Amino acid sequence: MSDGHLWIWVVYDHPRDYPEHYVARAQRGLADGLTAVSGSAFASPNYEDIEAFMIAKGLTRLDRHPDDDPVILETCI
User: β-pairing, 22-29 with 7-13?
Assistant: First the structure.
């Protein structure tokens, strides 16, 4: 996803729509500081698969913010 936008991948720990999986979802940064959720996602029952997916994309892991929803593990940019 190299279209000139800032893409942020949010990693979730067993969200409600995937209760047996970890999920990484792509969001596009917008000029106004908000994000737009895309349809791109990757799900796996193993966190290691998510981690390998992020590494393969060359992304940098950022720790979750204390105000994030508890189901959010991290973000990657």
Answer: antiparallel
Per residue in 11-70, pLDDT (tens digit) is: 999 999 999 999 999 999 888 888 888 888 999 999 999 999 999 999 999 999 999 999
Strand partners, 9: 26, 76
Structural domains in the chain (count): 1
Domain-embedded: residue 51? yes
pTM above 0.70, yes or no: yes
What is the DSSP code (8-state) at residue 34? Answer: -
Domain span at residue 73? 44-77
- Three-state secondary-structure class, residue 47: helix
**C-alpha closest to that of 74 among 1, 13, 7:** 13
